[in-house]
Amino acid sequence: MKTILKNGYIVDGNRGSLIRRGSVVIEGDKIVDIIDSYSDNDGLQDCEVVDIEGLYVCPGFIDVHSHSDLTIIAHPESESAISQGVTTVVSGNCGFSVCPVDKTLANVLTEAKSYGIDDISWRSVRQYLDFIRGLPIVVNYAYLVGHGQIRAEVMGYSNRLANEDEIRQMKYEVEKALDEGAIGLSLGLIYIPGRFSNLDELVELSKVVSFKGKIVTNHMRSESSHLLEAIDESIDISRLADVNFEISHLKAAGTGRGKAESACKKIIKAIGEGVRISADQYPYTASNTGLSQVLPPQYLEGSIEEIIRKITDDPIKVAQDIESYPHTPWDKILISEAYNPKLAKYLGMSIRDISMDLGLPEALTVIELMKMEEYDLGAIYFLMDQDEVDYIATQDFVMVASDSAIRNCSSNAFPHPRTFGTFTKFISYYVKERKLLTLSEAIYKMTGFPASKFGIVNRGFIKRGYFADLVIFDFDKIVDNASYVSPKILSDGIEFVFVNGKMVYKDKKVVDYAGRVLA
User: Fold this and answer.
1) 323: three-class secondary structure by DSSP
2) CA-to-CA distance for 366 and 356, rounded, in angstroms?
3) Would you call 19 helix, strand, or coil by DSSP?
4) What does the pLDDT read at residue 137?
5) Could you report the average pLDDT of every consecutive run of 10 residues in the chain (519 residues)?
């Protein structure tokens, strides 16, 4: 049976396209027709009709930067994503992935158990994606293989350059992962062990990706004091490897404040010279990463367990080193995730407030928290200026991404509000409130642009023959409700969401599972 989305305003996913009134016809998992108007006399009476009079219909939003490798297993309903209109997520970002896995199995299992996953059956990318295929999931799922994961498998977490044989092994693993269904390679050059790699290694691996016609994404070495140098490195990798390249969550943070315009101009210049580089961004002034990022570089070697051993051997000395190393002010760092139940009371609290509760100086508080957790903790850092966030958001080469992990409202985490609010906020803030973008421009940054950039075929646009991933929203009502105080609040204004032709979200509830693995 066909389904007709009757008489709405169509935003088709193209940049600058005119919004027009019409109806979208779905049959099976595809869009089969787009008609200018519909009446009961059009001979389509046997169809299921969804009246969207006064509402807008656009392609499903594509979140190209997600960390849902394990949370999609723990939370297959994907409330945080589907409730804001996201129909496809790309996971395996920032150099982190949960496969291929062998020597690092203990590390992956530690994280898995934190989500209530007692064991994992996969070892390769193919096995992992087959496992996801066997789950009922709401959203479509695409995967990047992590450079950091591959490097750890080949040469551990040691601070040294790869030799020729190790680079050869890593190239083999990258090629194998791409052949098994990964849509690209992610770099995490601020994290262990990616931070120990040099340009030669990264270019050699990226050449494999280029040959396969895939994408490389990059959490750069610096988003603050050495932002411009990190931009140069990204451009060099893309140019030297001739690879399709994405800078992840572009920002000018901390001591990098004031550099957003210079960073963007470098990228624009490179694009003008033929470099295939773009970026994504979330519309918030706070970032979210591990608490371990406040540690000085000398402590950031080895596995997370080895790091914790280092910082607890002589905590007074380590605390002195932390205080002498540039870091975000302690009242601007909030704990967002911890798995030790004893730390649950600290979720949403700043390091300064926690230190007062523990009766410890702030740096010693960091050490104590990591010691109690026996793992890294999630932390929110208030690092950016709104004007620069806005400047980056409106650049033609920038698309939208959440940099979050799929969650349900019932999950124990205290996530960054971007988890539940990125895409609705982008429309509410940049189109409705600030009027810095047209609705068509904003939708393009969340649909057609990411689909084209990441090679997500036959999605991202409202076209005949394309998969029916669709969002129906009320423009007047659309708004993000998630905040730093109450981050797990669903957005308003998302009326219906279709994935592969099935309605999966209605009345703020998940009503079906229709997601697929995209490889």
Assistant:
1) helix
2) 12
3) coil
4) 98
5) 96 95 97 84 76 98 98 98 98 98 94 92 98 98 98 95 98 98 98 96 98 98 96 98 98 96 98 98 96 90 84 94 92 92 93 97 96 91 97 98 97 93 98 98 98 98 98 98 95 98 98 98
* Residue 14 DSSP label: S
pLDDT of amino acid 68: 98
User: Which tokens sit at 515?
Assistant: 């997601």
Tell how far CA 255 is from the center of its chain: 24
Q: What is the pLDDT of residue 42?
A: 58
Q: Which amino acid is at 432?
A: K
Closest CA to 426 of 381, 471, 461, 466: 471
Q: How far apart are CA 392 and CA 405, in angstroms?
A: 23
CA distance 365 to 420: 29
DSSP 3-state of 144: strand
State the DSSP string of 467-508: B--EEEE-TTT-B----SSS---PPBSEEEEEETTEEEEETT
DSSP output for 360-397: S-HHHHHHHHHHHHTS--EEEEE---HHHHHHHHTSTT
Distance CA 89, CA 328 (A): 30
The three-state secondary structure class of 12 is: coil
Q: What is the pLDDT of residue 402?
A: 98
Separation between Cα atoms, residue 511 and residue 505, nearest integer Å: 5
Q: CB atoms < 10 A from the CB of 110, how many?
A: 15
Residue spans of alpha helices (H) in 63-138: 71-74, 79-82, 105-114, 125-133
Collapsing DSSP states into helix, strand and coil, what is residue 247? strand
Two structure tokens written together for 482: 């998630």
Angle, CA 326 vertex, CA 325 and CA 329 arms, to 5°: 120
Distance CA 381, CA 260 (A): 18
What's the alpha-carbon Rg for the chain, to the nearest Å? 23
What gap in Å lies between CA 373 and CA 341, rounded to an integer?
Answer: 9
Q: Is 228 exposed, middle or buried (0-12, 13-18, 19+ CB in 10 A)?
A: middle
Classify the C-alpha dihedral 323-328-334-339 as positive or negative: negative
DSSP state of 431: I
Rounded distance, CA 509 to CA 331, Å? 36
